[in-house]
Model the fold of this input.
Amino acid sequence: MSLVQEFRQFAIKGNAIDLAVGVIVGAAFGKVVSSLVGDIIMPPIGLLVGGVDFADLAVILKAAIDDKPAVVISYGKFIQTLIDFIIIAFSVMMGVKAINAMKRKPEPAPEKAAAPIPPAPQEQLLMEIRDLLKHKA
Done:
């Protein structure tokens, strides 16, 4: 089998196509979630915390000299990214929870009739005596 034929079989298999569709939809969904967080959720949070922009927080290790840029640890950008991640993860969790709630729940299987409970030994003995007396009469 030639390399081209092997590649064609691989590319046409359902798994490869499903993976490609998943990646494309996932990328588009990532943009939607990023917009949700950046454009809808973060502005009210920024208003609540007084307009603090974490991205501006940094420690300057070495100031800029002439044409050399400053050496900076931008821990504020990390904090902002961490907050964005928590909000995105929570939003995705709530979306998945909503989708799962909308899914149809399978109908429960009908319960099998329980086997009758056998009578107690005393009752069994009394029933045998009754049957014997019926036959004698």
Remarks:
- The mean pLDDT is 82.
- Strands lie at 59-62, 71-73.
